[in-house]
Amino acid sequence: MIRLAPRFAELATMTNFSFLRGASHPEELVAKAAALKLHGIGVADRNSLAGVVRAHVFARENKKEMGATRVAPGARLVFSDGAPDILVYPEDRAGYGRLCRLLTKGNLRAKKGECLLTIDDLLDHAEGLRIAVLPQADPARCGSDDEFFFLSRLREVFPDRLWLAAAMTYGPHMRGALAERIMTARQANIPLLATNDVIMHAPERRRLADVVACIREGVKIEEAGRLLAANAERHLKSPDEMARLFREAPQALEETIYFFDGLRFSLDELSPSYPEELREGYPDPQAALEAFAWEGARKRYPQGVPEKVVKALDEELALIAKCKFAPYFLTVHDIIRFARSLQKKILAQGRGSAANSSVCFCLGITEVDPARHELLFTRFISAERKEPPDIDVDFEHERREEVIRYIYKRFGRDRTGLAASVITYRARSAIREVAKVFGLSEDVVNALTGTTWGYGEGGGVSETDARRGGLDPRDPTLALAIDIAGELVGFPRHLSQHTGGFVIARDRLDEVVPILNAAMEERTTIEWDKDDLDALRILKVDVLALGMLTALRKGLDMIEKHYDRRLALSTIPSEEACVYAMIQRADTIGVFQIESRAQMSMLPRLRPKEFYDLVIEVAIVRPGPIQGDMVHPYLRRRQNIDEVVYPSKELEEVLHRTLGIPLFQEQAMKIAIVAGGFTPEEADLLRRAMATFRRAGTIQNFETKMIEGMVERGYEREFAERCFKQIEGFGEYGFPESHAASFALLVYASAWMKCRYPDVFCAALINSQPMGFYAPAQIVRDAREHGVEVREVDVNLSDWDCTLERLDESPSPRFAGRGEAAPAIHPRHAEMAEHILTTHAVRLGFRQIVGLREEDMKIVVGKRGAGYDSVRDLWLRTALSAATIEKLAEADAFRSLGLDRRAALWAARGLDRVGDQDNLPLFMASRPQREHEPDAKLPPMPLGAHVVEDYRCLSLSLKGHPVAFMRGRLDQRGVLRCEQLAKTASGARVSVAGLVLVRQRPGTASGVVFLTVEDETGIANIIVWPKVFEKLRAIVIGARFVAVTGKVQSESGVIHVVADRMEDLTPMLGLLSERGPEVNRPARADESRTSRPDPRGRPGNRACRPPALTPPAAMASEQRDLLEVLPLGRRFH
Amino acid sequence: MLRREGGALSPTPLATYAKIGNAQLLVCVDRLAASLGLTAGLPLADAKARRPNLIAVEADPVEEGKLLERIADWLQRFTPLAALDGADGIMLDIAGVAHLFNGEASLIQEIETRLAGQGLTARAGIADFPRAAWALARFAKQRIAPADATGKIFAQLYHALPLAALGLNKDVVADMARAGLRQIGDVALRPRAPIAARFGEDVIARLDALSGLERAAISPRFAAPDFSAERRFASAIQERAAIEATLFKLAENLAFLLQRQAKGARRLEFALFRVDGAVRRIVVGASRPLNEPEAMRRLFRERFEAPETDEFDPGYGFDVLRLSCLLAEPLAPAQGDLARASQEEKAQTLADLLDRLSARLGARRVTRIDCVDTHIPEFAVAAIPATLGDARRPIPARRRAPSAMVPLSRSAGKEEGASILPRAAVEGGGGGPRRFASPARPLRLFERPEPIEAIAEIPDGPPLRFKWRRAMHEVAAIEGPERIAAEWWRRPDGPTRDYFRAEDTEGRRFWLYREGLYGREAGRPRWYMHGLFG
C-alpha cells in the first residue's frame, strides 16, 4: 500500500500584529512553517492586515530557505455581533480589494485601535473570498440549530468557498469536539479544514503568550488563572503531527491544500498606482511632466539651458517614461506648486534619492542645482530594479498643516492616507509591563529602568542594570521578568501614524490596504509602515516639517523688508569665502545640522571650503561612518597626512569624491555590488535586512557573502569588515548622499544668513522656536558676540515676534532706547567684522516671555498708539487681566516708562480689582492712579536678582550672566574663564566653571559623557570618561553649576577639558538671590522644549533626541525659585 | 516631615516619593540623602540616575497622618489639649501646665528628648499665641517667647524671621520676595494698606496673629474631660496586676471627684501611655451613671477578659495611666438592673459566630471551601479562612460544555474516510446537542494522585488498559487528552499532564493522567489516577 506523506497548510495563524495575542513575529512564523515543510502558511491577524507584508517580504527574500512553502495574506475576522471568528483569504486581486474595504469599514466606524464588524459586512463583501468558520468561543452553541442555520446561510453566499475549521489544541473535550465538528460539517455539507489556531511559532513562546495575555487584560500572572492557556499547543505543527491529531478526519488536511491552492493573490500584484488627473490637458502624464520640466528649465536658466542639463533632462525623462513614474513626479510637483502658490509662500525643499535630479530641480522640487554643484548621482532610479523613486519634501514646520489639509482636499480621503508607524516595545516599556505582570513593585521597576540613562536599543534590561539598581539578578522572579522582557523587546505594540508619509492612490486606497482612524480628527492612516510600502514598491510622498525652513523663510522676509534684498534659497549668493571661513572656525551656533557639538568639533578638522565639503560634513557625523571607522581615515587624508589610495581600480570611480573612503550609503551599497559581487537587488535586500535585523536571522549570510566576496576579489579582510560594519550603521540611520546634498544647501543658506546678517538670523531663529539645538539664551549670546545689539522686551516697543530696529533711529522716538551702543564684536570673531552687513538691532518679542498668549499681546500692540505711559494706562486701554500685566511686569517690560521690574510689579499688583469703581466707563482713563497711597519704599532690586528674574521670565538675560556674579569667588579658587582655554597649552591642568547647558551620552561614544558648560565669557566642552562618570555621576547628572578640573586637550582648534574632578557649585548660585542659600532645588528650565519632535525629520541626527526626562509638573513656587530659572542643561542621548 | 529616620547610620540614602501630576517626585529625603544633594521636588528618575543606591518608598499620606495622630495622642500626657496642626505639626495648649514640668524650657526639652527616644526628630516652640509658637518652632533660633512680648522684644523675636514664618501660601511668599519683602520685619515696618491691597488681607491678619491681635483657636483632638485622674510612674510598669491595681486606685480618685458633684460616669476612658509613644485607649460605656470604683473596675475587667484583647501588650511598659470620665450625668437615685444589659446580645448571626470562633481558634482553623482560578486541578479548590470568603473576586464561569465520550478505536488507520466518524456522534444524529455527555471534572478528586501502571500508545495516546489498586481495567471509551502544563512561573520545569476520561468495560469512569511528554520533556512519563466520575 502506498502511503503518501501528509500535506498540510496552516491557515489560522495570528502574528504579534494581533497585538497582545500573537506571541511570534510574522518572520518567525514563516521561517518555522518553511522549516516544517508546510505546504503553505496563511497569515490571519485579528481584523488586520498589518503583519502580512512582513511575512510576504520575508518569504520573498528567503526563497531558498522557503522551499515549496508559500505565504498567503488573509485576516481573521472577529465580529462584534456574536458570530464565530472567521478566517478570510482573498482568491484574487478583486477579492483582496474587497477584504481591505471590509476591514476599512470596520475600522472607520470604531474608535482608534478597534474594528467593529458584523457578519452582514462579510456577506456584503463576499465575492472572491474564501472563508473558514472557526469553532464558536462558547462550545454550548456549537452544533446547535442556530449554528446550522448560520452555516447554511453562509453556504448560500459562499458556495464552494466555505470551510469549517477545527482545531485540536488539547482542550477538555478535544476528541468529542472534533467528532461534533465532523458531524456538523457532514450535516451542513461543508468541508472540514484542519488548523491549529496558531499564536506562536514554537511551544517555547508559551511564557510570552501568557505574559502578553496578562498585559492585555491588565492582570498579574498569579491571578490570571484560566485566562491563560492551559498548555503550549497553539504553535505551528508539522504535517505528520497534524495528520496524527486529525486521524479521524484525514480529509481535513487535504482540504487545507485545496483551500490554499485556490488563493492566487500575491501582494506583489499591488503595483504603484498614482493619481492620473494631474496631466492638465496633456495627453498623458509623461507628456505633462516633460512640458513642466522644460518650462521649468527655461525659468531656471534664463540665459539658456546649459548643454549638460539638456542632456541630463533627456536621459532622466526617458528613464521616467520607461518606468512610468511620471504621475509620481507630477504629484510631488503638484504639492510643491501649492505651497508656492499661496500668497504667503511656504518654503519647501525636496530630498531623497530622486530629489536631486535635474528633473526635480527644474520642477522646483529642490534647489540643489545639478549644473552648478557637479553632483553626479549614479543612483537615481534603477530601471532594472524598478526601484521606486524616493522624494521627501520638507516644509516650514509651522505651516505643514496647511499642506496636509491641501493633500486631503486635492485627492480626497478615500484615496489618501498616512503611512503607519509601528510602535514597538523598547527595553524600558517592555520591562515595565512585564514587571507589572509579575507583580514586581513599582520601585523595582524604577530601579531597573531608572538607572538606564539613555535609550536601551535592543537587548532589554541587563543584569548589570539590575545590579546597579541594587537588585539581585539571581532572584528567580526578577530573572524571569528580565528574560521575558528581553523577548518582548521589538514586539509591535500598536500602530501610530508616521510623521508625514502620504500614500495617494489612483482610485481607491481602501482597496490597496485597510484604512484606520488616526488619533487626530480628520486624519486617516493605513495599516502599513514605510518599510512595508517600500517592500511592495508602493509610492509615498513624505511631507515633513523642518524648523530651519521656517527660520529661513522668516529670515529672508526680514532681509527683504529691512535690507531691501530680495532673495530666495536658490539666489542666496553661493560659495562666499567668508561663510566658509566662519564654518571652519566652528562658529556655527544655530546653523542647520552642523551646530551640534559633534559636528562643531569636526569642522575645524574638515575645514569645508566648498559646497561638496558641506555635503560630506553633514553625512560624516553619523552612526554609519562612525561605526565603520571611516571618519579618521578620511580626515587624515584630507589633512594630507595619509596618502589617498584606492582599494582597487574598480572602486576608484565609486570613492574618488571622498578620497577613497566610503562615507555615503550609496557608496556602501556600491561597494557591495562592485567589490562584494552582489547583484543590485541583493544589495538592496542587504540594506533592508539591516534595518530589520532584529526580526530575522539572515544577516550572517550577507555578512559572510560580502566579506568573503571582497576577500576573494583581493580586498583586505579588515577593509571588508569595516565596510560591512558601516552598512550595519547605515541600516538604521541611513544617510545617502542625495539627502546630504539637500541638507547641505540649507546648511549653506543658514550659515550665509548668520555670517552676513546675524541680527536677522538671531531674530528668525527665536521666532521659529522651538527648533534646533540651542535655546534662545545661546542664540542671543552668540548674536551679541557678533556685534548685534539685542534690546529688551518692552510694552511700548516689542511685537509678538522679535523685530529689527534700525540702529540709528528708534521706531518710536518717544521711547528711544537708552542709547546703548552696539556691543563690540568679540575678538574671537574679529575677522568677520568686515563681512557683517548688520545695521539693525534685535528687539526681543513678547513671545520670549513665559506664559503669555499671542492674542493678548496682539491687543497690546494694537492699542498701543503713541505709547502707554503707565501700567495703569496699559491696563485700562487693553482691558487685559491683571495676571497678564503682572507677567509683563515680571519680565521687566516697562523700562520705557522708567519703571524697573520691582516698581512695575508693585504698580501692577496695585491695580484695582474687579468691582472697583474704575470699571465704570465714565471714569475710565480719567481717574488718576491710587492717590494718597503711602510710599512703600521698596528696597532696590540687586542686579543679580534681576538676572535671575530675567531667566525665570524670559529664559535669558541681557543684563548679565549668572556666573559673572560669582567671578570673585571663582578667582579665589583659581578657576579660569572659559575663553582663557583657547590660550592654554594642550595638556595643562586647569579648572573651569559654568552653567551646564548640555549633557550628552551619544550611543556611538561607548559611555563617554559630553558636557557643555557656559560662563560669562564663553563655553567649555567637557569630556567625562565612563570611569570618571561613575564616580561623578551625581554631579554630572544633577548639577546646574559646576567647576571642572582636568587636562586641556587641544587639537586643530578643538578644545576639550577631560574631567578628572568635578565640584557641584550649584549652592553657590544662591548668592544670586537676595535670599541666601536656600536654593538647591533643580528643575528644568526648558520645559517647553522637552516634548517636541525632532524637527529635522527622518534621517534625524541621533544626537538630537529630546531629553528623556519629563519636567516636574507642579512644584511649589518657592522651591521652584532660583534654580528652576537657570538652565538645567539639556540632555541628549 | 514625620518619618522615622532609619537610624542616622543607615548606609543608603532613603527618600519617599509621590506621583504629582504625571511625574514621580521625591517628597521627603532623609539626612543622608539630603547630604548627597537630593531634595524634595526632584523627579524620582533623576534622583535614581544620580544615586542608584537610593531607596525610594512611595509616600503614604494616610499612614503619615496616622503616625502624626499617634504622636498627638501620646502628647496628651503633657496636656489634654493637643491638636493636629497641618500635615506636619502638633499644637499643644500648655496653659497652666508648664510648671508641672519645671518650666517651659524643660518642657520643650522633655518633649524633644522623649520623641528623639522614639526615633523622631521634633522641634518645639512656645509663645503666647498659636501662630507665634508655630513660627518659632519652625523658623527661629530662640524658641521660647517671653510672656507678653511686645515692642522691641517682639521685633527681636520675629522681625528677622522669613515671611514663610507667617504660614503664608508659597506663591504669596514668592511674590512678596519679588517685591523685596522677605522678612516679617519688611512687612511689619511698612504701611499696611498697600501691602494688603497687593498681597491680600491675609498677610496682615497673619502678622497680627503673632501678637495675638488676631485670634486663632486650636481644635484639640479630644475635648478635655471634666473629670480625670492620672498616675505617672518613674519606671514604667508592665504587669497586668499592677495596671489593674492602678486602675482601681484611679477609679477611687475619679469616683471621689464625681461624688463631690453628685454625678456619675456614663462613659469612661482608660488611657495607657506607653513609653515608646503608643497610646492605648479603652472606652467603656455604662447604662447608668456610675460612681462606685468597683463598678468601674468591673466594666473594664470585662474588656480585659475578652479573648482577642491585646490591649495589654505593654511593650516597654506604660509610664502614664489616666482614667477619665468622658460623659457624666447627674446621678440617678435608682439603680438599674445590670443583668438586663446582657439581653442585648441575643441576635447571633452566623457571621458573629464565625468571628468568635476565628478569634478563639485562630483564623486558619475555621475555613470554608472556595474555588481558585487555575488550570491545575488539585489547586482549583482551596480551603480558605472563613472570614476571608466574601472579599475574593468572583471566579469566572468555567466552560462547562457537555461532550461525548468517543469509543476508543484501537487502530485508527484501518478505517478510512468518512466511515471513521465516531459512532457515538453519529448515533447522536439530528441537529441537537449530543446525548452522551460527561462532565470535564470528576465528582471525586483524589487528594493525592495514585500511581498506576498503564499501557498506551506514544506519544500521547490514551491508555488501553491500566492497573489501579491491583485491579486491571480494560478501557472501552475515552476522551482526551486534555493537556495541562505546569504553571511555568511557579515551576519552570514542571511536567505537563495529559488527562484522560476513561470508561472501562464495566462502565466505571476514571480520570487519569500521564505526567511528562514523550520526547519534549525529560524523564519517562508516568501514569496516575486522579479521580472518579460517579
Defining traits:
heterodimer; A: 1133 residues; alpha/beta; 7-stranded mixed beta sheet; B: alpha+beta; MutS, DNA mismatch repair protein, domain I; Dna Ligase, domain 1; 4 domains; 18 strands; elongated
Write down the Rg of chain A.
33 Å
What is the count of helical runs of chain A? 44
Low-confidence stretches of chain B: 1-9, 334-338, 341-348, 390-404, 406-436
Count of β-strands of chain A: 23
Secondary-structure topology with pairs:
The complex is a heterodimer of chains A (1133) and B (534).
Chain A: E1 9-13, H1 26-35, E2 40-46, H2 52-61, H3 63-66, E3 70-77, E4 86-90, H4 93-108, H5 119-124, E5 129-133, H6 145-157, E6 162-167, H7 174-188, E7 192-195, H8 206-217, H9 221-224, H10 239-245, H11 251-261, H12 285-300, H13 307-323, H14 326-341, E8 348-351, H15 358-363, H16 370-373, E9 392-396, H17 400-411, E10 416-424, H18 427-437, H19 442-450, H20 463-468, H21 476-488, E11 492-504, E12 515-517, E13 524-529, H22 530-535, E14 541-546, H23 547-563, H24 577-584, H25 597-606, H26 611-620, H27 623-627, H28 631-638, H29 649-655, H30 665-674, H31 680-691, H32 699-712, H33 717-733, H34 737-756, H35 758-767, H36 776-785, E15 790-791, E16 803-806, E17 840-843, H37 854-862, H38 871-878, H39 882-890, H40 901-909, H41 943-954, H42 967-972, E18 989-1000, E19 1009-1015, E20 1018-1024, H43 1026-1038, E21 1041-1051, E22 1054-1064, H44 1117-1125, E23 1130-1132
Parallel strand pairs in A: 1-2, 2-3, 5-6, 6-7, 9-14, 10-13, 15-17, 18-23, 20-22
Antiparallel strand pairs in A: 3-4, 4-5, 8-9, 10-11, 11-14, 12-13, 16-17, 18-19, 18-21, 19-20, 21-22
Helix pairs in contact in A: 1-2, 8-18, 12-13, 12-14, 18-19, 18-21, 23-34, 23-35, 24-34, 26-34, 29-30, 30-31, 30-33, 31-33, 32-33, 34-35, 35-36, 39-40
Chain B: E1 14-20, E2 23-29, H1 31-35, H2 44-50, E3 55-58, H3 61-75, E4 82-85, E5 89-92, H4 104-117, H5 130-139, H6 151-158, H7 170-178, H8 184-188, H9 192-199, H10 201-210, E6 227-237, H11 240-260, E7 263-274, E8 279-290, H12 293-305, E9 318-330, H13 350-361, E10 367-371, E11 381-385, E12 406-407, H14 423-428, E13 444-456, E14 463-468, E15 471-484, E16 497-504, E17 509-515, E18 526-533
Parallel strand pairs in B: 1-3
Antiparallel strand pairs in B: 1-2, 4-5, 6-9, 7-8, 7-9, 10-11, 12-15, 13-14, 13-18, 14-15, 15-16, 16-17, 17-18
